[in-house]
Amino acid sequence: MRKTMKSVFLTTLSSGMKCAVLTTTSPVSYCALTTLAGTRFEPAGMAGLAHFCEHMLFKGTVKRKSYHINNRLERLGGEINAYTTKEELVLHATVLREDLNKALELMSDLVFHSVFPPSEILKEREVILDEIRSYKDSPMDLIYDKFEEKLFTGSPMSTPILGIPRELKKITSPHLREFMKDRFRPEQMSLSIVGNISPPRALVMAEKYYGKEAFPELGGNNVTNPVNKPLAAPSCLFHDTEKRGTCQTHCLTGSVAYGLHDSNRIPLVLLMNLIGGPASNARLNMILREKYGLVYTVEASYSPYMDTGFAGIYFGTDGVNLDRCRELTEKVIREYATVTMTPLQMERARKQLIGQMSITEDNHEVQCLSMGKSLLAFGRVISHAQMLSMIASVTPQQILHVANEIWDESRRCTLVYY
């Protein structure tokens, strides 16, 4: 099954893995292997297994030591890296056009032939434990993790990506191998390629390293078992204040939000961008920082997952200004929840978000990573033009609706560090 959508070529490899190729004129190529192997898919009692697996993929394969893995692309001026989210484990590489085949081969070797040496597990466990401890020096990062732990209590979504120390200490090579066997299956993976290469040539490489021959356990069948659909995460209301001994007081307020497939997702993206997006003219930045000088950092963020999401507003301020900042934040929220935006306001809001996304889209690495996630979430790549069309169709009534639903005080939670 093959089809072309705009400039993105989509296909399904013989293994059942979805693949997307975007041809560019750049001398640099990008590739990403995205797998539904994030935190929420970890077995009970193994918090941090996915992130641990990400680290250990670079510690040796059947034919390569860790030194050879690190040196394979870097000596060519390229790089290979990985990251773990609540839902995905992503391997991605950046290389010159002529080295794309090397990058695809290396990622394949890491995924299918890693050996997880016990001696390396002992060392890497300490590295991760140190990473967890370092979060205590970064309260802005820590408060987001703790907030989601509380918000999604009773769901796998509550598990911190870095893991829990006492559970990390239980993880052994067999646990890692079993996790790889369970999650790294073609129907739970996607391959995305962006570079100056024709789709037929890219697909020859993709088929060589990720076709059915790479998955001998499939026994000639393409898809043997469907992707497990995660359960919707429940909300857990809380309003907590914790003494952390920080110089600033950190406040995060928010609630469970829409998932990737919800029709309200794009209106909420636009609303959060208005309230506290990256632009300096975001409402909270203009009020809390520019008008009153109460904060250095204030932001509104929205993270959609497959079946749920999280929307939050964060700021850091001096303790004496906490109540004033919260009061002003509530005032902004009430404005969007009670006053319908005018046509001119909507036009400006849509234009700003479209401009921001168009500039982001100009980054080929971002495109590559986005394509991989889109293939797993939607089974297709949502084109830039389609995304802009969805933004352009958002109405003032939709903004009013999502502002009332997401920021309803009866479903809101708050966490304060001081």
Describe the structure.
Strand 1 and strand 2 form a beta hairpin. This protein folds into 2 domains: 2-218, Cytochrome Bc1 Complex, Chain A, domain 1; 239-417, Cytochrome Bc1 Complex, Chain A, domain 1 (2-Layer Sandwich), CATH 3.30.830. The protein has 418 residues and is of the alpha+beta class. It has a 7-stranded mixed beta sheet, with helices on both faces. The N and C termini lie far apart (56 Å). The chain is built from 15 helices and 12 strands. The protein has helices spanning 49-56, 66-74, 100-113, 118-134, 139-151, 165-168, 173-183, 199-210, 265-276, 283-291, 322-338, 343-361, 364-378, 384-392, 396-406, and strands spanning 2-5, 8-12, 18-23, 28-35, 79-84, 89-96, 189-195, 239-242, 249-257, 295-304, 309-317, 413-417.
Task: Fill in the keyword field for this structure.
5-stranded mixed β-sheet, disordered N terminus, 12 strands, Cytochrome Bc1 Complex, Chain A, domain 1, alpha+beta, 418 residues
What is the CA–CA distance across the termini? Answer: 56 Å
Number of domains: 2
The major β-sheet equals: 7 strands, mixed
Task: Estimate the mean pLDDT confidence.
Answer: 93
Helix proportion range:
40-55%
Give the CATH H-level superfamily of the largest domain: Metalloenzyme, LuxS/M16 peptidase-like
Rg over CA atoms: 22 Å
Might you state the CATH topology name of the largest domain? Answer: Cytochrome Bc1 Complex, Chain A, domain 1
Number of helices: 15
Strand line-up across the major sheet: 1-2-3-7-4-6-5
Approximate strand percentage: 15-25%
Count of individual beta strands? 12
SS content category:
alpha+beta
CATH class descriptor of the largest domain: Alpha Beta
